[in-house]
Amino acid sequence: MHTPQPAALVTGASSGIGEVFARKLSQRGYYVLLVARRIDRLEKLADELENAEALQADLTADADILRVESLIKNQPNLEFLVNNAGFGVPGRFFEADAEALERMHRLHVIAIERLTHAALKGMMQRGKGNIVNVSSVAGFFNTLNSTGYCSTKAWINSFSEGLYLELKNVGAPVRVQALCPGFTYTEFHDVIKMDRSRIAKSLWMTPEAVVEDSLKGLEKNRLFVIPGWRYRLFVGLNRFLPQPLRHFIAIKFDRN
């Protein structure tokens, strides 16, 4: 659907951080294109927002990536892209399901690369745009039993940084952000059957707080946004630790 309003596309919009992004962007006057696998939730959200529409898509599948790419390319007023869809595959890499790992890599890497590429040409031509790639604090660490997840989030960080520098170098008016939350109250941890009580309550954040930090960071053109001072401290300290000590800590705090 073409709309005279500025448009935003949010993947993984059926719950959690993606849903909050959709609500916040709707409040800011964007026509929101909601993308996720669960069409019932998307349609309910679209009805609530009124200035939104739902598109069912599984971004681990080539055909669905192509459909969303086409939607992006044919939307003349797309000003905001939130690559939020994601999931985790817990457990040791050599014991995890190979097909699940491949789907995760396709979603976190291939889908983000393709949708970002599809959106950028139009944004460059129109002279405005915002791209938020939802990564994770895990992208700065190597956590045992999350090797594939940490690796794909590290790729998102690296990709976002490279894109940020390319656009800055040519003076492009398109802002790029890698949003790197820590533990957040979403369905993500329910899906992987994680016991939240094993993590200190002070480390948990709400998706609303995460999205607010993201939008504030975007206004200041910050590349990396790490919500929560504790997580910013962890990431900052990690940069100065020698590799042997980082490895010792990773093994020492293995929770499997």
What does this molecule look like?
This protein is an alpha/beta fold and 256 residues long. The protein has one domain: NAD(P)-binding Rossmann-like Domain (Rossmann fold, 3-Layer(aba) Sandwich), CATH 3.40.50.720. 48% of the residues lie in helices and 14% in strands. It contains 9 helices and 7 strands. A 7-stranded parallel beta sheet has the order 3-2-1-4-5-6-7, with helices on both faces. α1 (16-27) links the parallel β1 (7-11) and β2 (31-36). The termini are far apart. The model has no long low-confidence stretch (mean pLDDT 91).
In short:
With 256 residues, the chain is of the alpha/beta class. 48% of the residues lie in helices and 14% in strands. Helix 2 links the parallel strand 2 and strand 3 (52-56).
Chart the SSEs and their pairings.
Layout (H helix, E strand, L loop, with lengths): L6 E5 L4 H12 L3 E6 L2 H11 L2 E5 L5 H12 L4 E6 L14 H29 L2 E6 L12 H23 L4 E6 L8 H4 L15 H13 L4 E2 L3 H10 L4 H10 L4
Parallel strand pairs: 1-2, 1-4, 2-3, 4-5, 5-6, 6-7
Helix pairs in contact: 1-7, 3-4, 4-5
| H/E topology pattern | EHEHEHEHEHEHHEHH
Overall pLDDT confidence: 91
Q: Proportion of β residues?
A: 5-15%
Tally the structural domains. 1
CATH architectural category: 3-Layer(aba) Sandwich
Q: What's the CATH superfamily, by name?
A: NAD(P)-binding Rossmann-like Domain
Strand order of the largest sheet: 3-2-1-4-5-6-7
Low-confidence stretches: none
